[in-house]
Amino acid sequence: DPDGKVVYQSEFVAVDPKEDSTKQFSVTGLTPGTNYAVRLDARKPGGTLVFAAQSGSFASAPDPTAVKPITFVAVTGQRYDTIDTPQGPLSYKSMAALKPDFFVHTGDILYYDKPHPFVKCAASARFKWNRMYGLEHIRAMHTVVPCYMEKDDHETLQNDCDPWSKSQMGSLTFARGLELFREQVPMGEKTYRTYRWGKDLQIWLLEGRDFRSKNAAKDGPDKTILGKEQKEWLTKTLAESDATFKVVISPTPIVGPDRASGKNDNHANKGFTHEGNWLRELIGKTKDCYIVCGDRHWQYASVDKKSGAREFCTGPISDKHAGGFSQKHKSKMHRYLAIKGGFLKVEVRRDDKANPSISFVHCAPDGKELNRITKPAAK
């Protein structure tokens, strides 16, 4: 444009109402560490008049050699009936105010298997997506903060579902749930992936539904949540990384502890002990590697005694959604435990002597800090 900014304008493309009028665009060749403004225009097929527009902005990730402070935020567990303000979850307003570099939703984005309405078909699933993402606080944050999305059980089909389940919700099957997730959430080729944010941070986003064995199967070397290909990828990419800090982000707990009974769906449960031990050992022996997880309805920080793996659970997005655990279950594994909602803030910084550190900060929905754990980089 006349001010010297580089402008790219795409062609108009058709969207299909049968696919909820969604469209995924792949943008390549971005310059690292650069601010970008975006405007999306809509017009009728064959028309010239733009009848709707949405503007936004984002900054691309810095170069892997760049020393730059990075802040990201992460959440889990948002249900329409446990939202704490009419404009949407207060946590979104608080997170946006922090101006984080990026946002991660670890899953349980919405709940097909909870009422008002229970999802019975693609149309009612889409209704829940559109209702949630029409909320003011969520819309406002997503126009200025780039995000990564993971899926878990409740936005796939129902609680603790696996690919082998023959259960349905009306006409909605597990396979159809996978299709609808990709329709609603831009994802790229694979649902597991890794991204570098400057010299001091690399994140890994895990896939916990697509490749898992039957939850009810007997535990052993062949029982898996991650699947062979993803396990090989995780092992290889963790070993190759020269980032100062490595953060593995999982839709479900890896360390826990989880509830003592009634759960058999994650690596902290007895039903996946074999793979859980392998995963905790891998992360525990990887220098400056940490776990961020979602799924559980309480905030915690814990350490696995055997492997030393450290895990930080975001807790649910609102206090109304918190529960399922109590302070009486606090164990020697816990470094922090609160039956609270809110979000997790992660900060990577260097001090005036260029010594890097990473901080995991549990926040209340209004942004108040509830707990902060800071770890320096290993020498």
Quick structural summary:
The protein has 379 residues and is an alpha/beta fold. Helices cover 17% and strands 24% of the residues. β7 (201-205), α5 and β8 form a beta-alpha-beta unit.
Question: How does this structure look, described?
Answer:
The protein is of the alpha/beta class and 379 residues long. 17% of the residues lie in helices and 24% in strands. β3, α1 and β4 form a beta-alpha-beta unit. α1 runs parallel beside α3 and α2 runs parallel beside α4. The longest helix has 13 residues. The radius of gyration is 21 Å and the shape is globular. It starts with 34 loop residues before the first strand and ends with a strand. 39% of the residues are buried. The model has no long low-confidence stretch (mean pLDDT 96).
Give short descriptive properties of this protein.
alpha/beta; 15 strands; 7-stranded mixed β-sheet; single chain; 379 residues; 24% strand; globular
What's the topology here?
Layout lengths: L34 E9 L6 E10 L10 E6 L14 H8 L4 E4 L16 H11 L3 H7 L4 E3 L24 H11 L8 E4 L4 E5 L22 H13 L4 E6 L22 H13 L3 E5 L5 E5 L6 E4 L20 E5 L4 E8 L5 E8 L5 E8 L3
Termini separation (Å)? 48 Å
Q: What can be said about the biggest beta sheet?
A: 7 strands, mixed
Largest beta sheet: strand ordering = 6-7-8-9-11-10-12
Which series of helices and strands comes N to C? EEEHEHHEHEEHEHEEEEEEE
Hey, roughly how much beta strand do the residues contain? 15-25%
Count of DSSP-assigned helices: 6
Sequence stretches where pLDDT stays below 50 over 5 or more residues: none
What quaternary form is this? single chain
Rounded mean pLDDT is 96
Rg value? 21 Å
Helix content range:
10-25%
